[in-house]
Amino acid sequence: MSDLADLTARMRAFTDERDWGQFHDLKSLTLALTGEVGEVAELVQWLPDSAARTVSDERLRERLGEELADVLLYLVRLADVAGIDLADEAAKKLERNESRFPADGHRGVAPDRH
Length: 114
Description:
By secondary structure, the protein is mostly helical. The protein has a single domain (3-94), classed as Orthogonal Bundle (Helix Hairpins). It has 5 helices and no strands. The radius of gyration is 17 Å and the shape is globular. The model has no long low-confidence stretch (mean pLDDT 93).
């Protein structure tokens, strides 16, 4: 079992044991995920460029880890409720990106959004 599959199973069990599935629809989970991403953004929004490149402050690293974990857990739960194999979809997306942005011609160049 992959780590992602294990997290999915644990989140499903955590939810089931508390009868929280009734609250875990796509909209509610998406809004919860968005809120957690906002908390990550709040931690880094006013960092100067030099500080935003690495996380050297131990308290910031701890808080960032907590919030990123929340993002991951909500994302895993959202994918589970939607019936999406997140690991498989992520691997397919990475393959598409590798084809779309080959290293030759894209090294050190921000992708064009058009």
